[in-house]
């Protein structure tokens, strides 16, 4: 079994050998090792994608829009993921985005997971008919068995920023607050006298 460090290193080198910069290769190495930890076939998807682009120049979106696509070409999941991270504030403002014709869309998952951490919100994803949710770079939840999948192309990869809402009522919150207040200690003269700095005399 390969270690996470080995997956990171070999993925990084393979991406660099495929024409990407070292900076991007570093990001992809970390991304592949992270989704492999979730049980998603990152190595298989990356290997297949790098073979696909061996004689082709991949491209990503030049800017983030509500609907993103390239005329006559598929979107590169790596360049698309990097753009999402770079423009995370714009993504948060836009809320819902569609990316059309994305090669090997599962390679986008670790970038969206990191996006979730950057915006501090859960992010819902739809890969054609597959529903996925990323939660603050901690977990990836899917309603479809994606762990062993190699998805060559998604017609539509949709991202939806999920606004944070309390799962509890104000009444429940107030009850919990009251319980927490039992730890409060009123300041007394004894505490004042024994606190740090108490009893020191000014020698000047």
What does this structure look like?
The structure is a single chain. A 6-stranded mixed beta sheet has the order 1-2-6-3-4-5. The chain starts with a helix and ends in a 10-residue tail after the last helix. Strand 4 and strand 5 form a beta hairpin. The model has no long low-confidence stretch (mean pLDDT 90). With 204 residues, the protein is of the alpha+beta class. It has one domain.
Brief write-up:
The chain is α+β, with helices and mostly antiparallel strands and 204 residues long. The chain contains 8 helices and 6 strands. It is globular, with a radius of gyration of 24 Å.
Shape: globular
Alpha plus pi helix count: 8
Q: Please list the strands of the largest sheet in the order they lie side by side.
A: 1-2-6-3-4-5
Mean pLDDT: 90
Q: What structural class results from the helix and strand content?
A: alpha+beta
Question: Fraction of residues in helices?
Answer: 40-55%
Ends distance: 70 Å
Beta-strand percentage range: 15-25%
**How large is the radius of gyration?**
24 Å
**Domain module tally:** 1
Please write the string of helix (H) and strand (E) elements: HHHEHHEHEEEEHH
The biggest beta sheet reads: 6 strands, mixed
Which oligomeric state applies?
Answer: single chain
**pLDDT < 50 stretches:** none
Strand tally, please?
A: 6
